[in-house]
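JOB MANIFEST
job_type = single_chain_structure
chain_count = 1
residues = 346
[input]
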Amino acid sequence: MELLNSDSLPPHLANEDTLEELLSRPSQPLIDDLERLDGDILILGVGGKVGPTLARLAKRAAPTKRIVGVARFSDPEVRKRLEAWGVETIACDLLDRAAVAALPCLPNVIYMAGKKFGTADDPAFTWAMNTHVPAIVAETFAQSRITAFSTLCVYPYAPVNGEGWEEAVAPEPVGEYANSCVGRERIFQYFSQQHGTPGRLLRLNYAIDMRYGVLHDVARWVRAGEPVPLTMGHVNVIWQGDASSQALRALLHCTTPTSPVNIGGPEATSIRALAHAFGERFNQTPRFVGAEADTAWINSTAQAQQLFGRPIVPLETMIDWTADWSERGLPAYTKPTHFEVRDGRF
């Protein structure tokens, strides 16, 4: 099996199979860490955009471990792909306490479930998914290690000319979704304190997959000649495979009580600069609307770099891959990130 390293990155990605293989290609540090990790891995909420390739990555990095993916599996094709990759699957509604209690109690739990888009249409369901489900999970798996995905949206906006917020900065959420995400963190923290459950709260920045993400959004606007919004003028992005690797490796760095760690790229970049980069590749002059604010959702990933090193896939490579993917009209999810939104209404 070829390993992921900076010397093995391809110049472009031929198709979705190539993309998903690369997203789930393990690095040697990940293989080494999972070999040191005691026990099998349960992934809750595996059916989303990131979950399938994270589960495949775990199985490829630790083929002798039992990797179990749990979701509603409203799309049966996702379940088939996971099982073809050697990942066990269990259909479960995580809002059903009895169904969660019947899941295998494995030593390591990765929590990926949550609700973001459509919060304004059904805020009660958003809060149920982002606070009630974590309570069920935290009580059920009190004896496991739990790494739980969170979001950069829990932070206040940071000055764009600074380093971004470190994990010690107090949350100051904007909008109902971000408030519910702080609730999710607080629930995991409470039960971690009550039961001594080791854990980590993974405050994920913008993960990049050729089919969606900030780079995909900007590339689409530039190529279509549509104005690029500058209202949120700076972002921090990370290759989704690097983010998945860090989430798995975080199981070896759990704390009691659980504590946050920022997952993202080593630097923030401006949307204007990204648009010009795509303009050069498409031979087009980007158009803009609005003006950059002097603050944005930017946080420091210094702690993650100390634990895991720098991400393997650099920003320039992600831009090249995204431009090539866009020019060839390869598949895309119809799921814009809405990164440009500043009022927290997703």
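[summary]
The CA atoms of residues 175 and 344 lie 4 Å apart.
The first strand starts at residue 41 and ends at 44.
exit_status = 0
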